[in-house]
Write a structure and sequence with these properties.
Number of strands: 8
CATH class: Mainly Beta
Strand content: 35-45%
CATH superfamily: Acid Proteases
CATH topology: Cathepsin D, subunit A, domain 1
Structural class: mainly beta
Distance between the termini: 12 Å
Length: about 110
């Protein structure tokens, strides 16, 4: 599911809501657009569906995400996407949806 969201002053039309993801992911390109907030160390290693490991840069803590009139703090893993054929800006996972008390009506 693709949504529209805003982080700081940066508005995005291609935010992916993936409730199968355990973490929220921010691309390095998006991190640069939101004025490069300071990283924190994180011991979490990411793997994609085929179990290939992804090199993450670090963790961002307490980044406010605005979507459809609602807002919530989110924690992100920042990754560098090597293949720019189909880059995405932000992926919001189950962690963000839980914090938002989100629900999805599949019929809509």
């Amino acid at each position: 599911m693709r949504l529209t969201a805003q982080i700081r002053e940066y508005e995005m039309d291609e935010v992916i809501l993936d409730l199968g993801s355990d973490v929220n992911v921010l691309s390095k390109k998006t991190w640069e657009h939101v004025d490069r907030p300071a990283f924190q160390w994180s011991p979490i290693q990411l793997h994609i569906a085929n179990q290939q490991q992804i090199l993450s840069m670090r963790r961002l803590q307490g980044i406010m995400v605005y979507m459809e009139g609602a807002s919530a703090l989110a924690y992100f893993k920042v990754i560098e996407i090597v293949d720019d054929n189909n880059p995405y800006l932000v992926l919001l996972g189950i962690d963000w949806a839980t914090d938002m008390n989100g629900g999805i009506n599949i019929k809509k």
